[in-house]
Structure formats: structure tokens, C-alpha cells
Amino acid sequence: MVEKIKNFFKEKDRFAKLLGFEIVEFSKGYAKVQAVIKDEYLNVADVIHGGFLFSLADYAFALSSNSHNNLSLAINANIMFQKAVSKGRLTAVAKELTKSKKIATYEVKIFGEDTDLIASFYGTVYRKDKKIIVP
Question: What is the pTM of this model?
Fold first, then answer.
């Protein structure tokens, strides 16, 4: 089932496709996603745009929170930027912190190629009584 959910996100998330996000690892409550920084993702200070970092973290968050095959929608999310980068590959690692029938929380860390911490993201989802993939 996890593989079907992964493929569903790869095929259906149009925004993730547009930004070139690649799923590297995926399992229940966990996701690792990568993206290569392109010039058009830089802001006027010539560093990666905060919106791009949020989007990368949000995609890893969506994958990990939906990995249990219950449609999970964000009800809260926040991000803290720790380091500015302008080039290279970014890796977002999402981990489930808490899970109940209706609410779950997640932590996403974004790392640069040198493994420096670029940003920390925390999010909460509401789990609906709807399957993503109907068995």
C-alpha cells in the first residue's frame, strides 16, 4: 500500500512536479524528498526563497502524514530558517512525532549538501475518514 501512495503523490501532485521534488525514501510516518536549487528559486538576496523551502518541507510533510492511507490535511504549519544557501541539492526529512485517530504532528528538517541544517518545519494534520487509495 505504501508504494501505491508514493506513486499516487508522484503522479498527482502537480506543484511538486513543477518544482522538481523527488521522493527518495518513503514509509509509514516518514518521507525523504530532494530538490536541486535552480536560479529561478532564488530571491533578490540571491539565496533560496523561503517559499521554496516551505513547499519542499510541506511536500515531505504531506507524504509522511498521508502514508497511513488516511487523507490528512494540514491545520497548522510553521518553519524556521537556519541557514541561507544558493546552490546545490536540498534534502527534506519528515518524521511523525505523534499520531492519533484524528490528529498527528510532524517534524521536517531540511539539509543542504554539506548536511548543514537549512530549515526546521513543524506541522499538524487532521485525519479524515477517507482513504487515499481504496484497497
Answer: 0.96
Strands 117-131 and 70-81 come out as antiparallel
Greatest distance between any 2 Cα atoms in the chain: 48
CA distance 52 to 79: 12
- Look at the block and give the residue holding cell 504532528: 105
| Bridge pairing between strands 30-36 and 22-27 | antiparallel
Q: What percent of the chain has pLDDT over 90?
A: 99
CA dihedral 32→53→61→9, nearest 10 degrees, is: -70
Confidence category of residue 135, pLDDT binned at 50, 70, 90:
confident
Residue whose entry in the numeric block shows the C-alpha cell 499538524:
124
Q: Give strand pairing partners of 91.
A: 34, 111
> What secondary structure letter does DSSP report for 1?
-
E strand map for the chain: 22-27, 30-36, 70-81, 89-99, 103-111, 117-131
Residue pointed to by grid coordinates 518524521: 95
Cell of 91: 534534502
Domains and CATH numbers, the chain: 2-131 (3.10.129.10)
User: What rounded mean pLDDT belongs to the chain?
Assistant: 97
